[in-house]
Amino acid sequence: MKIFKLREGKRFNLGTGDTRRIFSPEEGVKNLTLNYAEFQPGQAVKQHIHPHSEDVIVVLKGKGIFKVEGKEYSIEAGDVIYVPPGEKHGMTVGTAMTLFTCQAPPDPGLYRRSSES
Q1: Beta carbons within 8 Å of 97's beta carbon, 6+ residues apart
Q2: What is the percent of the chain with per-residue pLDDT over 90, rounded to a whole number?
Q3: What's the predicted TM-score (pTM) here?
Q4: Whole-number Å distance between alpha carbons of 24 and 56
């Protein structure tokens, strides 16, 4: 068992918000990644693809626009978003947003793809 503090997660660049890696292969977790993020109004996550990973995003606070394969969807606190492997996705924040993201299996490029669009 491991217990991690959200604020002690290792920062990484996923768009323009404060994103932190909580569980990943670097921390010894083999089958998934879990990230915590806080975004301010107008910040964004550039569109990207997880070629072999499923992605689940849980919106805890705020509102925004989630874009998948060229279509836009309004999202808000309480929404849970599933993105299958290979779908291009990203988002723009409307009001201050807090969320969790989880990828399984881990995407080895997740923590280094910050400049891709």
Answers
A1: 17, 37, 38, 39, 59, 61, 62, 63, 64
A2: 74
A3: 0.89
A4: 15
